[in-house]
Amino acid sequence: MPRLLILDPSYATFTGHNHAVNSLLIEEATQRGIETTVFANVLMTRRDHVVPAFRPFAYGFFPPNSLEALQAAYFIGMKFGEDLARHVQPHLMKDTVVFAHTLNNPLLHGLAAWVASLPAPGDIAIRLGLNLPPDFRQPRQELALWNAYQYGYASKLLTAVAPTARFYAETRELQSHFAGFVPRPVEFRRLPLPVMTEHANSPRSDDDRRLVFYVPGEYRTEKGHAFLIEGILRIAERNPAWLQRIRFQFTSIFMPDEVVATLARHPSLFEVVVGESTSVERYWQLMAAADVVGCVYRPFEYARRASGIFNEALAIGRPVVVSRQTSIAAEVAADGDAYGITVDFGDIDSLAQGLERLVETYPRLRQGAAAVADRFQRELSPAPLIDWLFDTEPAGNGR
Fold this sequence. Notes:
Shape: globular
Order of helices and strands: EHEEHEHEHEHEEHEHEHEHHEHEHH
Largest sheet: 7 strands, parallel
Low-confidence stretches: 395-399
Helix content: 40-55%
Number of strands: 13
Mean pLDDT: 90
Structural class: alpha/beta
Strand content: 15-25%
């Protein structure tokens, strides 16, 4: 029986992005008769197909001192290698596929050292996602450059002992970036995400002339919530009547009380959905009820990174508003701006112009989003990734 071992050190709860990705992969692989185990963080609870194993996480900041950063990276890699030997190695057999979709460079070093220690490293297939850019959560340029060098060094060590290793990235920008220092080709493909399409095609009411502009997710600076709220309030001061065509809907996950109070003072502009009601099912209900989805992210964090919210919105045919100089803005442009409006992050005049274009061109944008929904659904399905992991992808389907 073929065997898939998924390494995910940041899988620590049965909710969120990592859980969604791993659950889809388990389900698809199991249906194909592939024995699948996910090795998760030690904080995880053991259950079918899930084994707590890893002490380090893939996320986090390195210390500001360069020597301390190097020491931290060494200990992360060493612990990861030890955890691999203890928990994963007993599950190895000939023709096993070992897959990791979210590793940073210290973890990649630990993986390379562990593979080199195996009696027959060539008997396993290594498949890796390069989805954390070197500057991920690293505001210091010298640390980002050091990370980039270490990614290249670790990937060379790995491919020396596992020459059939394959790499992919989930944005074109990451693909291009890593191709500069990874010794093997880096392919493009999306990580799978669950898409609920039950209400996606519900028609808008002709009586409701206001667009529902949905801004999902946690209240975080890089997600653009503060900029959007400030910009909307200032635009409304200039021309209150114009904004009556749009209603902005936010979820209140980790939103400061003072921000919630500010939004509550403007009920004609804003609606706040309390965090307790944003279950997975409720999230998709809100997405389906929206006319447009906001992904106005800060470019520093999203110049190369993917956005699950962006992918999910397009998978159910919802237009988007995005920030320029991000990977998702590049994707909108590559599709001829058929389903998205781009604005300059931090520029309120640009935001005002973008919202005006949104109102004026909405029917065209909605049609453009509907036209790509099937493609996004296919690409977010776990099937193409499982095909790639086991080299069963039909010829010509690589991206």
